[in-house]
Specification:
The complex is a heterotrimer of chains A (288), B (376) and C (285).
Chain A lengths: L1 H35 L1 E5 L2 E4 L2 H8 L1 H35 L2 H12 L6 H12 L4 H8 L13 H25 L3 H9 L4 H29 L3 H7 L6 H11 L3 H26 L3 H4 L4
Antiparallel strand pairs in A: 1-2
Chain B lengths: L14 E12 L2 E12 L3 E5 L6 H9 L6 E6 L2 E2 L10 E4 L11 H11 L4 H14 L15 H13 L5 E5 L7 H18 L2 E6 L2 H7 L2 E6 L2 E6 L1 H6 L4 H6 L4 E11 L2 E6 L4 E4 L1 E3 L8 E6 L5 E4 L10 E11 L6 E5 L5 E5 L14 E6 L5 E4 L1
Parallel strand pairs in B: 3-8, 3-9, 6-7, 7-8, 14-21
Antiparallel strand pairs in B: 1-2, 1-4, 4-5, 9-10, 11-12, 11-15, 12-13, 15-21, 16-20, 17-18, 17-20, 18-19
Chain C lengths: L1 H33 L18 H4 L12 H34 L5 H9 L6 H23 L10 H25 L4 H8 L4 H30 L2 H6 L6 H12 L3 H25 L5
The chains are: A mainly alpha (288), B alpha+beta (376), C mainly alpha (285).
Chain lengths: 288, 376, 285
C-alpha cells in the first residue's frame, strides 16, 4: 500500500520532468540533427547525406566565422574572469556587511535588463553622434566626431559587459562560503599576497570560476544581439549565420547543421575546460 | 531478558502501550531486535541507550513513521499496525521540536485540532486551556522565533497535549538546550507529566535525564532491551555488564574466577589484581570462567596509609594518589594501583589538611558485596 | 608603518577600481534611460530640455510610448508570454524540486545533469530546434490528415515553449535549493498531529516553499520578458516588446520613444528583482 503510493507519486513527479526534457530538449535536438543530415536534391526532394557539413568545410567563410566566434568568446570569458574576480572578491570579503548586500544588488540589477536595452545604451554612447564622441569634440580633444562602433574592440567590450554579471554571481557565492580564517592562516603560515591568492583563494573558488566561465562562454558564443548591434554588418558572428540560413535564405537544413556545429563546438570547449580543471557540470553550474 | 515486562502487581493492568516481539531490519542491519515491553497508564517511561542503538527507530515505529518487520504494537489494547501515522493517537515531540515557523504559537497549537475539524470556539477554549496549563497564557500571538528555548519546548509539548493523546513520545527534546536550561527542563517535564497524567515515553542517550525523570527506564543496546526497571534498580542491580557499565560510573576489569566458596568468588584481573566478589550475575559463573568485574567509585574508600584505622572490607589495595579531580561534592581521586592501573574512588574534599593530595600513599577498601561480576 | 601606508594605497586603488566598474555598469543604462526625457527628436546630445512627451504625448512626431499602439501591443504580448512562462516553469520547477530532493530512482545524477543542460545550450539553438520540431509535426499532420495545426506554427505558444524550455532549469534550481533546506520532521510533526498528506503539503511544505516559488516566478517572468535569442526564431505575428523594439531600431532608426520604453523596463525590472530578493530573505536574519 504505502510503497504503491510512493511509486505513484514518483511517477507523477517524473512526468512533468520527462515531458519537458523529452519534448522540448531531446526530441528537438534530435530532430535538428536529422534535419541537418538531409540534402536538398530537388524542390521537396531530399536525400540523406553529409552535404550540409561538407558545404561548411568547403566554405572558409563559415568555419572562419565559427573559429572567430569561438576564439573571441574565449577572450571575452577570460576578460570577464580577470575583471570580475576582484569585484567578486571585494563584495564577498572586503566590503562591510551592509554595503555587501547593496553592492551585490547593484551588480544584479543590470542582470534583469534586456540585452537589447544594454546594447542600445552602448550605441547611444559610442556612435559617431553619440555621447562620448560629442563630449570629446565639445571639450576640444578631437576635431571631428569619431565612430567608436562597428569594430572588434567594441564588440568585446559590449560582450564582456553583457556577461560579466554571470561571472560575478557564482564567484561571490563561492567566495562567500570561504572561511576568512583560511586566508588568515595562509598569511600566518608565511604566505605573501600572491601565494595566498594562488594556493588558497583560487583553488577554493575553482567551482565558482569554472561555473562562471561555462555560463559566460556559452552565453557569449550563443549571443546574437550584442555582436550584431555593436559590430554591425561585418561582425561575422556564427549565430548570425544560423539566422541567415534559417530566416533569410530559408535553408533550414544547413541552418540546422550550423546549429549542431555550434552546439558541438561549444560543448567540446566546455568539456575540455571541465577536464583541465577537474570539475564536473553538477558541482559547478548546478550550484550557482 | 528481552521479554522483560513490568509485572508489578500493584499497578493496574491497563497498559497504554504494549509492544511485542518487535523486529525492524534495514537491509541486513537489524535496527530493532525482538523488543517487547508494556507501559502502564500514566507513567513516565524512558528508553536509554547510546546513539545508534535503535531507540529512535523504535519510537518512529510507535508513531507510525516506520513499519516493524515483524511484531505487534498495541495502543490501549488495540493493534495499530494498519493505522497510518496521522490516525494514531500517539503524539510526538521531535528532537528539534519541529514547530512550524510559518505559524504563530496559537496556530501551532491549533494545527492538530483544525486537522480533525474541531469547531472554532472549541479550538479557542482548548488552546487557551493548554497554554494556561503550561504556564504561558500570554504567548498565543507570538511568532515562534520570538520564544526562548524553554518556551519553545513547552509549546511543542502543548501542541501535542491539546490533542489529548494516549501516549506522548519525546525524542531527546532537551538535546539542543544549554546545560542550565536542560537541568531546569528536566524538573519541568516531570511536573508536566504529573499534571497531564499522560504516559510519556522519553528517549535519550543522557542517563541523568532518564534516571531523574522516569518511573521506569529501559536500557537499549544494539537493537535489544538489556534491562527494564526502576532507575535505582538499574543502578544498584544491573543485570548485564552493559547496564553496569552504561549506567553510572564504574571501575571495570576483565578477569577470571579462580576459586568459588559459597556465594563468594575469588577473581583475578588480567593485570593480576586479586579480589573477592559476592555478587555474581548471570548463569554458569564458576571457577575458571572469564568475567567482567565492576566496582563503583562511591563504594571504594580511600584513606591515607599512614592514618590509623581498622578495615572490615574484604578487598584492600595499596596505591598512590595520581591526581585529585575536584568537583565539589562529587570529587574523586585517581589512584595508581600496584599493577599500574588507575582506580577511581570518591572522596570528600573539605579543604582541610586531611585532604588527599597527589603523591600520598593510600589504602583502597571495598566490600565483596559491591564487587559485581558478570559472565562474559 | 610602511606596510600599512602601502595597504592604504592599495585599498584606495581597489576602491577606485570598484567605482570605475560600477560606472561602467551603469553608463549604458543611464544613457538608455535618460534620453527619454530629452526634448529632441533624436536620442543624442545636445540636451534640449526636460520633457515627458516620449511617455505621454499622443501625436506624431513625438508619439509617447503610452500612445504607441505597436509598442503597447508588444508590452501586452510580453506580459502574457511572461505570465504563462512563469506559471508553467514554477509548476514544473516545483515538481522537479520534489523529484530530485525527495525521489529515489536509478540514474538520478544523470537526470539531474539533463535538468541543468538547457541552461548552457545557446538560446539560438533552443529556438531553432523547437521551431524545426514543431514545423515537422505540423507539416506531417498537414500532409497526412490535411489538418492545419495553427498552434505549432511560430506564434505565442511556441515562444512560450521555447522560453519555458530553459527558464524551467532556473526555477528548478531556485526551488530545489529551498526544498533542500526543509526540515522533514516538520512534515512528520504535521502528520503526527493528524493532518492528511494533502493537508501537510498545503499547510506546511508549500508555505515553506512559497518565498522561493514567488522569487522563481519573478525571475522567470523577467528572463522571459527580456529574452531575445530564443524568441527571435519562434515569433509569429504577435511580437513581444523586445522584438518590436529591435525591429524599430533596425528599420525605423532609434527615436527617444525607445529610451522611454528602456527607462520603463529598467525601473520595472529593477523593482521586480528587488521584490524577489526581499521575498527570499529570511525574516529572522
Amino acid at each position: 500500500m504505502q510503497s504503491d503510493i510512493k511509486r505513484l507519486s514518483l511517477i507523477l513527479l517524473f512526468a512533468p520532468f520527462a515531458l519537458w526534457i523529452a519534448l522540448l530538449i531531446i526530441l528537438p535536438h534530435m530532430g535538428m540533427v536529422v534535419l541537418s543530415l538531409r540534402e536538398k536534391v530537388a524542390p521537396r526532394v531530399y536525400e540523406f547525406g553529409f552535404g550540409n557539413y561538407i558545404d561548411f568545410i568547403n566554405e572558409p567563410i563559415y568555419w572562419n566565422t565559427l573559429l572567430r566566434t569561438g576564439s573571441m568568446s574565449i577572450l571575452v570569458t577570460f576578460l570577464a574572469l580577470l575583471i570580475g574576480f576582484p569585484i567578486a572578491y571585494y563584495i564577498a570579503k572586503i566590503a562591510g556587511k551592509r554595503s555587501r548586500g547593496a553592492l551585490f544588488l547593484l551588480c544584479l540589477i543590470p542582470l534583469w535588463v534586456s540585452d537589447l536595452i544594454r546594447a542600445f545604451g552602448w550605441i547611444l554612447l559610442l556612435r559617431e553622434t553619440g555621447v562620448i564622441s560629442s563630449f570629446l569634440t565639445d571639450i576640444g580633444l578631437i576635431d571631428q566626431p569619431i565612430e567608436f562602433l562597428y569594430n572588434d574592440i567594441t564588440v568585446v567590450i559590449g560582450l564582456v559587459y553583457t556577461v560579466i554579471l554571470f561571472m560575478i554571481v557564482p564567484l561571490v557565492s563561492t567566495l562567500d562560503g570561504m572561511d576568512n580564517a583560511m586566508i588568515e592562516a595562509g598569511y600566518n603560515l608565511g604566505g605573501n599576497g600572491f601565494t595566498v591568492l594562488r594556493r588558497i583563494i583560487v583553488p577554493y573558488a575553482m567551482p565558482g570560476i569554472v561555473s562562471g566561465c561555462i555560463v559566460v562562454f556559452m552565453m557569449t558564443a550563443g549571443s546574437y544581439l550584442t555582436p550584431i548591434l555593436l559590430g554591425g554588418k561585418n561582425s561575422s558572428w556564427f549565430t548570425e549565420q544560423i539566422y541567415d540560413q534559417f530566416i533569410t535564405r530559408f535553408n533550414w537544413e544547413s541552418g540546422a547543421a550550423f546549429g549542431f556545429l555550434l552546439l558541438a563546438f561549444t560543448s567540446i570547449v566546455v568539456w575540455i575546460g571541465l577536464r583541465l580543471t577537474g570539475q564536473t557540470l553538477a558541482n559547478t553550474v548546478a550550484k550557482s | 531478558m528481552n521479554t522483560a515486562t513490568l509485572t508489578d502487581p500493584a499497578l493496574e493492568p491497563a497498559f497504554d502501550l504494549e509492544c511485542s516481539n518487535i523486529h525492524k531490519s534495514f537491509g541486513a542491519v537489524r535496527a530493532v531486535d525482538d523488543v517487547s515491553f508494556k507501559i502502564p497508564k500514566g507513567s513516565f517511561f524512558s528508553i536509554l541507550g547510546p546513539s545508534g542503538c535503535g531507540k529512535t527507530t523504535l519510537m518512529r515505529m510507535i508513531a507510525g513513521f516506520e513499519d516493524p518487520t515483524s511484531g505487534d504494537i498495541q495502543i490501549k489494547g488495540k493493534s495499530v499496525l494498519n493505522t497510518p501515522p496521522n490516525k494514531r493517537n500517539v503524539k510526538m515531540v521531535f528532537q528539534h521540536l519541529a514547530l512550524f515557523p510559518m505559524m504563530n504559537v496559537y496556530e501551532n497549537i491549533a494545527y492538530g485540532l483544525r486537522c480533525i475539524g474541531t469547531d472554532k470556539a472549541e479550538i479557542d477554549r482548548k488552546v487557551k486551556d493548554v497554554l494556561e496549563r503550561i504556564a504561558l497564557p500570554d504567548v498565543a500571538d507570538r511568532e515562534i522565533h520570538q520564544l526562548s528555548g524553554g518556551q519553545k519546548q513547552r509549546i511543542a509539548i502543548a501542541r501535542c497535549m491539546v490533542m489529548d493523546p494516549d501516549v506522548l513520545l519525546l525524542d531527546e527534546p532537551l538535546g539542543a538546550l544549554d546545560l542550565k536550561l536542560r537541568e531546569a527542563m528536566k524538573i519541568e517535564l516531570k511536573l508536566l507529566q504529573h499534571q497531564f497524567n499522560t504516559t510519556f515515553i522519553y528517549i535519550t542517550h543522557d542517563q541523568s535525564e532518564a534516571l531523574v525523570m522516569s518511573d521506569h527506564v529501559a536500557i537499549m543496546n544494539e537493537g535489544r532491551f538489556e534491562q527494564i526497571g526502576r532507575p535505582e534498580d538499574l543502578y544498584h542491580n544491573p543485570q548485564t555488564s552493559f547496564v553496569a557499565g552504561f549506567v553510572g560510573d564504574s571501575n571495570r576489569w576483565s578477569g577470571r574466577v579462580t576459586a568459588q566458596e559459597g556465594g563468594e568468588y575469588r577473581v583475578e584481573t588480567e593485570a593480576g589484581l586479586v579480589m573477592t566478589s559476592a555478587r555474581a550475575v548471570g548463569q554458569g559463573i564458576s571457577s575458571g570462567k572469564d568475567v567482567s568485574i565492576f566496582v563503583r567509585p562511591e563504594f571504594i574508600t580511600a584513606r591515607k596509609t599512614s592514618s590509623e584505622g581498622s578495615s572490615t572490607a574484604q578487598n584492600t589495595l595499596q596505591g598512590r594518589v595520581d591526581s585529585v579531580l575536584f568537583n565539589g561534592a562529587n570529587s574523586r581521586v585517581l589512584v595508581r594501583d600496584p599493577v599500574g592501573e588507575l582506580i577511581e574512588a570518591d572522596v570528600v574534599v573539605t579543604g582541610g589538611t586531611e585532604d588527599l593530595r597527589a603523591g600520598d600513599d593510600v589504602t583502597l577498601e571495598w566490600s565483596a558485596a559491591q564487587t559485581m561480576c558478570f559472565a562474559v | 608603518m610602511a606596510s600599512s601606508t602601502k595597504n592604504q594605497a592599495f585599498l584606495l586603488g581597489y576602491r577606485a577600481y570598484m567605482a570605475a566598474f560600477f560606472i561602467f555598469l551603469a553608463a549604458p543604462l543611464v544613457a538608455a534611460g535618460s534620453f527619454a526625457f530629452n526634448d529632441s527628436l533624436f536620442p543624442a546630445l545636445p540636451w534640449q530640455g526636460f520633457t515627458l512627451d516620449w511617455f505621454f504625448n499622443d501625436s506624431e512626431p513625438k508619439l509617447g510610448m503610452f500612445h504607441d499602439r505597436r509598442l503597447l501591443r508588444g508590452l501586452y504580448y510580453s506580459g502574457v508570454i511572461g505570465v504563462m512562462v512563469s506559471l508553467l516553469s514554477v509548476f514544473v520547477g516545483t515538481t522537479n524540486a520534489f523529484l530530485f530532493v525527495r525521489g529515489n530512482f536509478p540514474a538520478k545524477n544523470f537526470f539531474y545533469i539533463l535538468m541543468i543542460l538547457p541552461l548552457v545550450i545557446p538560446g539560438v539553438i533552443l529556438g531553432i530546434s523547437i521551431l524545426v520540431m514543431a514545423s515537422n509535426i505540423a507539416n506531417g499532420v498537414e500532409d497526412r490528415f490535411n489538418l492545419e495545426l495553427e498552434f505549432l506554427r511560430p506564434g505565442i505558444l511556441l515562444v512560450v515553449f521555447g522560453q519555458f524550455s530553459f527558464v524551467t532549469t532556473i526555477t528548478s534550481l531556485v526551488i530545489t535549493a529551498r526544498l533542500k533546506k526543509f526540515d522533514t520532521s516538520l512534515e512528520e510533526a504535521a502528520l503526527n498531529l493528524g493532518a492528511s498528506r494533502a493537508q501537510v503539503l498545503r499547510t506546511v511544505t508549500l508555505p515553506f516553499l512559497r518565498p522561493a516559488m514567488i522569487a522563481a516566478g519573478i525571475v522567470a517572468f523577467l528572463v522571459s520578458f527580456e529574452n531575445f535569442n530564443t524568441t527571435l526564431f519562434l515569433v509569429g505575428s504577435e511580437s513581444p516588446l523586445t522584438i518590436t523594439m529591435y525591429d524599430r531600431m533596425a528599420k525605423v532608426g532609434s527615436t527617444p520613444v525607445l529610451n522611454a520604453v528602456s527607462f520603463f523596463l529598467i525601473v520595472g525590472s529593477g523593482l521586480l528583482a528587488l521584490i524577489s530578493v526581499v521575498i527570499q530573505r529570511d525574516p529572522k536574519s
